[in-house]
Protein 1
Amino acid sequence: MKPPPAKLCGSLEGPPITAPRIKLRDGRHLAYKEHGLPREKANNKIVLIHGSDSCRHDAVFATLLSPDLVEELSVYMVSFDKPGYGESDPDPNRTPKSLVLDIEELADQLSLGEKFYVLGNSMGGQATWGCLKYIPHRLAGVALVAPVVNYWWKNLPLNLSSEGFNLQPSRDQWAVRVAHYAPWLTYWWNTQKWFPGSSVANRDDVSLSQPDKDIILKLGSSKRPHLEEVRQQGLHESVNRDMIVGFLSWEFDPIELENPFLNINGSVHLWQGDADMLVPVTMQRYIAERLPWLQYHEVARSGHLFHFAEGVVDDIVKTLLTT
């Protein structure tokens, strides 16, 4: 089944354009949202990369950051809609590298300076690893928060990737297989009704741990006030495209990356909950072992959404900017 064309924002039948947007090198537009101090006054500028089924409004690292810390650390943040999400134009040719180039263009058009910080969460990890690969010279520091791991990275031991893969519900194992081996079937797979598609695409919490479910219960309806905007241009160029890009074969392996801050100030941090059922902690531990220059922070009794817990965002941002 061929996916329907995306409903482009600003088109006759598409959603309206309400956000500020930049025009990219290929004519696409990228929508963004600013947080914290005015960018011309801030000393520390952070680009936030959202996860799957999210948008620029889901900037928890900005909205939960304490005002005192914003002032103390002189913080400006910008969140943006990844291509196909919210009000950013789709990019059917998206790769980890192309998204990195989008981020670099956003930073340059907003005059964020020669160097800036990058903070990516969950499926935002694909672009965050990509920044370390393709634009290390532009980075002041990097934080990866529960970044999704591609089971087909060539340097992951087969037994480890198989173990992590098999921890997923069978519906998600099949959805990931389709995204990797037959990406052209991803739309059909996640919309047909004969058997369950991806839990993320179907917004089913089957893959969430009990700590995550407790957090969702506590947040209630306040968690996603902009939920309808996330997929307003269509499922395929947003959630499905994230899956395809995230689980296809990449042209680089993060486990082979070199320290971008070997002789200069800066640091790379990876935060992971030990009870995460979406991203197996065993795989993050292995990555941390292989990359000794990466500072690994494991959060006990916590799932994929541990950063919503009180005080965690402050810890992550302060650690990024001060170590």
Protein 2
Amino acid sequence: MIYLASPYTHPDPKVREHRYQEACRCAAQLIRTGHHVLSPISHSHGIAQYGLPGDWAYWESLDRRFLEMCDEVGVLMLDGWKESNGVQAEIRIAREMDKLVSFLPAAGGEECHNDQDWRGSR
């Protein structure tokens, strides 16, 4: 199963919504091509709207558990992924767990990856 890491936290709710939509789009594309995907942003965005924080510090323990359940991590390279505390922590934790980490281009098109070259290394 692929853990889809993507940036989320931002002061502008429109940016958060855009990031959520892109994570869902990418997860759907991966599922459509036969992958099993767990997208924490797709899961937690709606839940967080009911008074829960949206930052990594709050979701870290749940996301660590999700990471344990997955075989690999795909990082959706949306604007802000390099600066995201959550994404950088997810990459670090995945590598500590000896999980495959891959980087998925966020081109804004139908595809969120090229099946031939999106998979990375441990």
Protein 3
Amino acid sequence: MQVGDFKVSYVPDGAMLLKPSGPLPRAVAGPWPPYGAYLNDTARLVANTGGLLVQDGPRALLIDAGFGPHSAPEDPGHPYIGTVHGGSLLDNLAKLGPRPDDIEVVAFTHLHTDHIGWACTVPPIFTRAVFAVPKSEWENRRQVPGLSAEAAAAVERRMRLVVPGEEVFPGVRALALPGHTAGHTGFSITSRGERLLAFGDALHSPLQVRHPEWFTASDSDPAQSERHRRRLIAELQQPHTIGFGIHFADVVFGRVVADERREGADWFPV
């Protein structure tokens, strides 16, 4: 897909099968039957993992780095996470052309393990890349569930801290979207009057475009996440703007269009 002069590509890594009553607690009381198309044949909500490759000629940026070469079976005792597997990002990156050492910057929306996986391998994969980490996310890293000391050290070795509005790559700026985590950040990619907003986990599912009041169980501050989600949805309705939802299964690129028949908006894949 082209965004002005940029070529943008989804780089799949794997998938998570989520128990729908957990990740979207407010969706439990009735709405799921009309939205059954979002569930697989085992009644799990499918959410993928991976990254967004942004290319400007020979230069390349990766936003988020997937789950990594790992997998985990479903834990019956966990309130919402089912089977999780990664491992495909490098193969899919190769199909798009770049090698890992062609990546100049890996920019993270936040430090959850399904977004930093390939940045924490031993030996390192992205040997030339600077890791752009939201400053407030790093300052609050001890509040990030599952972030091990080893993973934090791997990120820190190549880290550059960034603040909202700062350019992380020519034409790509950080966008504050806190609530999922304290420093959760999106990225605005602009070129020749076109814009793509990579919004990380501010939206986990297209369902939240219609229902921005539906927080996720992993949001550290549900009220804050809802405020920024509503602001994001309004921004996605602006002209010449598309969105990228890292967990949106097979509809990762889309436009948000207001529903003229009733209040709200919907996600339309592109």
Protein 4
Amino acid sequence: MIRAIIVDDEQPSVEKLSKMLQDSGMVEIKGKFTEPLKALEFLKANRIDACFLDIEMPDMDGIELSNRIINLQGKIAVVFVTAYHQYAVEAFRLNALDYLLKPVSDDRLKETLDRIVEEKNIGMNNDGLTVRCFGKFRVTTLCGEVRFRTEKAEELLAFLIDRRGGFAGRSEIIDCLWEEYEGDRALIHFNTTLHYVKKALLLHGVQIPIEHDRGSYRIDSGNISCDYWKFHTLAAGAGPSGPDNLLKYEEAAALYTGSYLSGKEYPWAERSRQMLKDQYIGLLLELSGYYNAAGRHNKTVEWMKAGLMHEPLHRELNYRLIEALLLANDRLSASRYYDVYRSGLRKKLKQEPDDYFKKLMR
């Protein structure tokens, strides 16, 4: 796997490129940064294979940053990401491995990743499985996206992933996925679908063991990279907000690119879906509290906007966004977001913002 970092002063750009890299099945994201100095601090203690750098950043441009990264780590694959064609010549003059023009296409990114693998002689793990649970459920290997013969086969794999490597009883699985069937007929559906799951993975070059022990089943987590599992680990181990845990909070929050198993009406997934949404909102509010206390209101604005992309009418996210804008002396933007929030409440819920908003906007 290619060990990579992304540096771009715009968080949405970071997240978009991060998702594309993770979906490729070829990249392990070791760090995502909107501030070049934090990236440099990270690289003092962590080795990587490649860095994806935005060229135009306010505090330190990507060209200067690349020179400092090379001084720290020596030969490294530098890929510049830019919206401007004129930077291409400059990128190659500086011996960058490649450059990507925004918006980045999947095909063009694949070319770049293949070049990195060849240049760095990186061994790729052909047995790995990448599973994305936030947003659309997606399973990929180096051979591409896994297609399942039936919807139930896809759901069965999602169910096992939901257990994070833990065992689930066969009767419980049948009750959740085939409640309309009983006895031998239900068992036939289960066994057939389990076979389809294993076959789909084998056809895409991976053999992930699905273990069976006394009527219970689990999926071996050893060669699986899953955003949901990583989010759970980071969120559970982050501890109180503060400098030591800040990166964990940000990394976990950045993994939440959409609701859990979005578009899948799986009743068994509702509990996890709600729990993960609540955890995500909690992380954002912790980040807001830390950054406001540090006087870095622009970071609060950045994260509240990210949260509102998923929960546009969330009361506390809107309040903290508007509050941070006012603290940053940007009353014009605060008024604009207040109007958007008020309009959404009126249209969808037939409600008005509460008195706390009105006091805030005086």
